[in-house]
Amino acid sequence: MINLEDNKHLLYAVRIIFEKKEIDNLWENHQWVVNDLIPLNVTSGEGHPPINDVRIRPLVNDTISKGDENKNLYVADASIDLHRAEAEGYAENLQSSDPSIYIVLRDGDLLDDNEEVDNENNGIDIHLAEVSLSPYNIQDYEDCGEDKVEKVPLYGPIAELLNKFVGVHFHPEEFKKRKRDKKNIDENIRRGGDQRLKKNYYN
After folding, report:
1. DSSP string for 120-173
2. Is residue 108 part of a domain?
3. I need a labelling partner for 30 at 20 to 30 A (CA). Which of 1, 102, 107, 128 fits?
C-alpha cells in the first residue's frame, strides 16, 4: 500500500479502451470515442517524468473474428501523473458538479523505432497525449485548440485515491481578516488626520 504522507508524486497506471466509430460526415468518416477506462496499479512516481504520448493499438483477442463488431476497439496503456503541486486542481475537480478524468487525444499515430505502419490500413490516425485529473492542466490544451479532450466520469478506486491524496497534500490558506490597529487610528484622529491628504484635497 502506498503511503501518501511519504509520496508527493504517484503514477496511477490505467488502460483506456477506444472505439473508432464510423460517421456520416462530408469531412471525416470516423470519430474516436472513449469506451472504457480500467484502473490498474499505483506506484511511487519519484524520479519518473510524466507519462505522455502513448500509442493506441488494436485490441487483440484471438477469440474475436475479423467480422466481429469488436474489431473497431483499440487500447492504450498510460499513467495518470499525480503530483502534490497539482493538488489544488484535483480539489477543484472533486468539488465540481462533474468530476472527470481528462483524456487528451492528438492527431497522428506514434511508431516504434524502425517500424513502418500504413495508417490507411491500420486505421489509427491519433495517439494519446495525456491523461490528467487536473482541470487547470487541461485548460492549457483547450486554450491551444489543437488537441481533442475527452472526459470520463471520475469514480471508483481512482476517485477514492484522489480524495485521500488531496486530503494529505492540499492545504488551502485560511482567510484571515486584517485587523486595524485602533491605537494608530485614534492617534491619527488626535493629530487631525493625515495632513498630506488635507493639503491635496484643498489644493
Report:
1. HHH---EEEEEEES-HHHHHHHHHH-SSEEEEEE--HHHHHHHHHHHHHH--PP
2. yes
3. 102
Assess if residue 136 is contained within a domain: yes
Q: What burial class does residue 168 get, using C-beta atoms within 10 Å of its C-beta: 0-12 exposed, 13-18 middle, 19+ buried?
A: middle
Q: Inter-axis angle of helices 87-95 and 156-169, to 10 degrees? A: 130
Contact at 8 Å (CB) between 156 and 39?
A: yes
How many domains does the structure of the chain reveal? 1
Distance CA 84, CA 133 (A): 12
Is residue 174, in this structure, part of any structural domain at all?
no
Domain of residue 44 covers 9-169
User: Residue 119: phi, psi to the nearest 5?
Assistant: -65, -25
The reply to whether 192 falls in a domain is: no
CB 70 within 8 A of CB 59: yes
Q: Identify the weakest region by mean pLDDT among 12-16, 47-51, 150-154.
A: 47-51
User: Which three cell numbers mark 30?
Assistant: 470516423
Q: Is the pLDDT of residue 144 over 90?
A: no
